[in-house]
Recover the amino acids of this structure.
């Protein structure tokens, strides 16, 4: 079948035969243009307006004008050049007149030769340029001009049309200027009449779009701005529609391919794994799981994009504490098989430990002054005070959900945590001395205690009876009864001892709160009826009845952002799926679950996960093995009945381990393999590959994905995962052949941060006000960051001379502002009197630590730093950030930096300082960043900045793009409508036999490389 109709032949004509070999060679080598059609689709990137004709007597300063005048005089001057090597320089001065006034034109250097020959006295011409002043005379330097020849009437008509025209400015190269491309376009433009229209007539008429030949004429030779708008609207539809047809045909073709349905067995591996899950799936997780399982059960390959937080959180920092029968241990030190205490006092085993890398960490501040840290997905067993009293079942809620709904209408805490049941700790040996007598001695003179006085661990990690005895000894000597008889308190000058008394009270299921009082600390003590705070009869007799609510629940008073920390989560083999953490706080727990892979293994297939780095592959492997426990020990002693084998395959593995992994894959022993690019090598063979899971898809080439998919006996199902929010339009264009699932529990915004752009060049007083705001924050007891792109002790390139630059050029060419320079200027100027310090990457580690310690302690008012503060820095008291030369940073960097403020109870302020002009793209990007904290919206901004890249090819960096006028972000509506139209067209005519023009356009779009891309998916 001939897919190129005869009508299309003029557009297929090589440029060599139309423009000549020299021009055609440059166009091919530098612009990738080979045919008449290629050149016609090389659209102008902007248009210049020459402006209306202006009389010489009325010329405005610093504006672009067009005049028609006659040359009165032309003189060529020679002068000594500043560059001796070039010898004499030349300057052509031409005086023109239109009867109303006179104007001087100036041409320099090599630019004098052509006008010296053409602009002879008596010649009439049109001149266009910017009016300037030199030696108190108006002039145009190097103006563009067009000679006017012929009769007066004809010349006048030419002048009017030339002056009013919209001049197309084409993407050009040093070898081929825009005006030369324009002249070449003039030669080939008649060929536009032969362009075959790819849009179905019904679609074009229904949307009021001009024909393709008319659109091509209007885009290259517009008479009005309306012509440009008409042309762009039409050409955007071409690009959107043809692209969506390509993707729709791919989806249609996939639907015809056979695949093995993978349905999990009712009592198989997935069910056994779910039984181990120590949590209930959220509604969003259940919805996404159903979409994936439905796709796996079909007889055609599933192609699904899962975007959102694909990794579960529900983790705590490694420096958090977990209560074990021997006492508290660091979260980072616990291992699978260790014993832990669950809230009801029983002992249970840890059956899974899952490192989660670094995550954002939050701190829950409880009503007794204690606190506990966790990630945003961590689960808590909570209920309102009324629900607890009524005996209603508690809820399991994430940290995120709690912090978004934290207080009642009267300002009191909404959510309360249950108390942990007291348990015996330590071994049977007990403490070395009588605990009560030890408590008496320690409590005696409690108000005069040394600051480091404390209760030794041996008296804390002991039985309930012994802990109570120590506490009673302390209270009998250092404790007092409240005047209303409702409770008691212990006073100490030692913070360590006060904390240990509170620890003892909480370990007994009671409530303790530390309150500073003059030179000492008061610890309020309230214990369950089972335990008396005093042994002395006279003190015990003064303790009155307990309040009506006998429970010792603690309310969640606030949740504050801590920063990024290494975290992990654990699985507890107990029906409660809960454990006791810092300060005897009850917490729930969970872990990452890759249930889709287990479903496929359950159904007799194998699942492969492709990770972008060895570190990530190893982390996934370790987590999955620990999560599955004996379910990952297929073929091994102790493995569960439904178990499979989970293998790791990376490039750095030893030969023996690699041989065994390859054997396990080809025999089917291994149901799950996690690996890097090593998975796609020819030697790797599968027994029955049923599912390919690609982690962080944007870091893989299409060929790599395809090589792995090609290892299945039939096309395997495909699940692409990304934690990066992808705008809907990008998903429709870049991932248009994939169905999309979105986990809707994306991270919410942090504490309120107000962001503003400070235009330092346009409005210098705004920058002055920025420094005033920093002073105000410091006066209020807060601190500020000032961030600069550069350190400042580097050797700067000397400024190069040359023609005068635009303000935007000047802002870009100026070296970025530097930490050392800015810190010195601030200390001597607008922030004089404040304590200003610097921090940057080339400082010695000890010096950096010392600076951060002082800043964290509040000794420094302002920290001037590079992006070393971008991650891992947490100073809740820092409320303001000024980012200098903000246009030099990327969107994600600005967002990361901005996240350093607004971490405490006070709102944050982020000021983005720039010298870029208001109309510049960089300024618009900063305005957009300032306007939102939303991850999806910021991903849109980031995409706009980087451009879409070639959405159908391998060049995804933005260097080249198959989209010429369609903007993925701006033209969302067109893309969505084009997707619907394309699906309908392909459903009715998959081979496009009734639409030869569309098929031709598709063939032009899908050159060999892109055709392979679509085939590979």
């Amino acid at each position: 079948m001939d897919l190129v109709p005869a009508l299309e032949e003029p557009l297929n004509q090589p440029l060599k035969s139309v423009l000549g070999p020299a021009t055609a060679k440059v166009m091919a080598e530098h612009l990738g243009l080979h045919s008449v059609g290629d050149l016609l689709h090389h659209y102008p990137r902007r248009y210049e307006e020459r402006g209306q004709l202006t009389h010489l007597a009325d010329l405005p300063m610093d504006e672009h004008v067009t005049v028609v005048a006659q040359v009165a005089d032309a003189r060529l001057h020679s002068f000594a050049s500043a560059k001796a090597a070039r010898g004499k320089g030349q300057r052509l001065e031409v005086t023109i007149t239109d009867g109303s006034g006179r104007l001087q034109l100036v041409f320099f250097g090599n630019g004098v030769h052509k006008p010296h020959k053409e602009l002879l006295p008596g010649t009439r011409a049109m001149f266009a340029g910017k009016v300037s002043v030199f030696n108190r005379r108006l002039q145009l330097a190097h103006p563009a001009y067009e000679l006017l020849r012929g009769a007066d009437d004809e010349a006048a008509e030419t002048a009017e049309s030339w002056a009013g025209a919209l001049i197309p400015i084409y993407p050009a190269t040093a070898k081929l200027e825009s005006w030369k491309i324009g002249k070449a376009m003039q030669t080939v433009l008649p060929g536009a009449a032969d362009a075959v229209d790819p849009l179905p007539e019904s679609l074009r008429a229904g949307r009021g779009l001009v024909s393709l030949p008319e659109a091509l004429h209007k885009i290259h030779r517009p008479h009005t701005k309306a012509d440009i708008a008409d042309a762009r609207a039409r050409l955007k539809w071409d690009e959107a529609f043809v692209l969506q047809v390509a993707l729709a045909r791919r989806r249609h073709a996939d639907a015809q391919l056979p695949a093995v349905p993978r349905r999990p067995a009712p009592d198989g591996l997935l069910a056994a794994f779910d039984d181990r899950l120590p949590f209930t799936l959220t509604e969003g997780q259940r919805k996404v799981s159903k979409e994936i399982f439905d796709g796996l059960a079909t007889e055609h390959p599933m192609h699904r994009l899962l975007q959102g937080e694909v990794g579960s959180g529900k983790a705590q920092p490694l420096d958090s504490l977990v209560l074990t029968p021997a006492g508290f241990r660091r979260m980072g030190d616990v291992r699978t098989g260790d014993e832990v205490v669950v809230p009801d006092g029983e002992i249970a085993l840890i059956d899974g430990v899952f490192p989660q890398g670094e995550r954002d960490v939050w701190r829950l501040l409880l009503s007794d002054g204690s606190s506990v840290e966790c990630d945003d997905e961590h689960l808590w067993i909570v209920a309102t005070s009324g629900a607890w009293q009524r005996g209603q079942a508690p809820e399991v809620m994430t940290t995120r959900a709690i912090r978004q709904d934290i207080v009642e209408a009267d300002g009191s805490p909404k959510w309360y945590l249950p108390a942990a049941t007291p348990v015996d700790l330590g071994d049977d040996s007990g403490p070395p001395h009588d605990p009560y007598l030890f408590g008496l001695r320690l409590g005696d003179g409690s108000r005069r205690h040394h600051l480091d006085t404390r209760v030794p661990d041996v008296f804390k990690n002991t039985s309930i009876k012994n802990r109570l005895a120590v506490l009673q000894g302390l209270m009998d000597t250092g404790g007092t009864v409240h005047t209303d008889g409702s409770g008691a308190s212990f006073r100490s000058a030692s913070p360590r001892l006060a904390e240990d008394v509170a620890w003892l009270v909480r370990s007994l299921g009671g409530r303790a709160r530390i309150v500073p009082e003059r030179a000492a600390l008061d610890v309020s003590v309230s214990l369950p009826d089972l335990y008396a705070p005093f042994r002395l009869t006279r003190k015990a007799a003064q303790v009155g009845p307990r309040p009506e609510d006998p429970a010792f629940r603690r309310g969640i008073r606030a949740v504050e952002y801590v920063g990024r920390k290494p975290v992990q989560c654990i699985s507890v083999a107990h029906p409660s799926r809960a454990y006791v953490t810092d300060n005897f706080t009850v917490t729930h727990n969970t872990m990452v679950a890759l249930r889709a892979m287990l479903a496929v293994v359950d159904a007799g297939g194998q699942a492969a996960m492709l990770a972008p780095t060895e570190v990530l592959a190893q982390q996934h492997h370790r987590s999955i093995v620990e999560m599955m426990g004996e379910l990952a020990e297929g073929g091994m002693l102790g493995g569960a009945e439904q178990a499979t084998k989970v293998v790791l395959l990376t490039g750095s593995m030893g030969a023996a381990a690699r041989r065994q992994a390859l054997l396990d894959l080809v025999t089917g022993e291994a149901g799950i393999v996690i690996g890097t690019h090593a998975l796609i090598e020819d030697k790797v063979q599968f027994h029955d590959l049923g599912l390919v899971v690609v982690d962080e898809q944007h870091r893989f080439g299409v060929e790599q994905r395809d090589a792995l998919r090609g290892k299945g006996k039939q096309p395997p199902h495909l699940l692409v995962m990304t934690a990066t929010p992808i705008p809907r339009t990008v998903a429709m264009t870049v991932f248009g052949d994939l169905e999309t699932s979105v986990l809707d529990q994306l991270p919410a915004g942090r504490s309120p941060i107000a962001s503003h752009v400070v235009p330092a060049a346009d409005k210098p007083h705004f920058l002055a006000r920025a420094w005033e705001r920093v002073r105000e924050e410091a006066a209020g007891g807060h601190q500020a960051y000032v961030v600069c792109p550069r350190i400042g002790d580097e050797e700067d390139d000397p400024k190069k001379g040359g023609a005068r630059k635009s303000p935007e050029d000047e802002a870009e060419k100026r070296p970025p502002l530097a930490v050392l320079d800015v810190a010195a200027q601030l200390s001597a100027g607008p922030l004089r009197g404040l304590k200003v310090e610097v921090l940057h990457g080339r400082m010695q580690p000890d010096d950096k630590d010392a600076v951060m310690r002082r800043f964290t302690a509040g000794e420094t008012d302002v920290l001037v730093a590079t992006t070393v503060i971008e991650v891992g820095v947490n100073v809740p008291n820092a409320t303001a950030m000024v980012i200098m030369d903000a246009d030099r940073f990327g969107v994600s960097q600005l967002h990361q930096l901005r996240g350093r403020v607004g971490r405490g109870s006070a709102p944050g302020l982020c000021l983005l300082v720039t010298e870029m002009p208001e109309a510049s793209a960089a300024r618009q990007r900063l305005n957009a960043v300032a306007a939102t904290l939303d991850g999806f919206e910021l991903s849109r901004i980031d995409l706009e900045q980087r451009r879409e890249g070639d959405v159908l090819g391998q060049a995804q960096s933005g260097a080249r793009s198959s989209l010429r006028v369609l903007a993925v972000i701006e033209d969302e509506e067109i893309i969505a409508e084009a997707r619907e139209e394309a699906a309908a067209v392909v459903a009715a005519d998959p081979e496009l036999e009734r639409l030869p023009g569309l098929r031709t356009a598709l063939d032009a779009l899908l050159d060999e490389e892109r055709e392979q891309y679509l085939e590979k998916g």
Notes: The CA atoms of residues 835 and 860 lie 5 Å apart. The first strand starts at residue 46 and ends at 49.
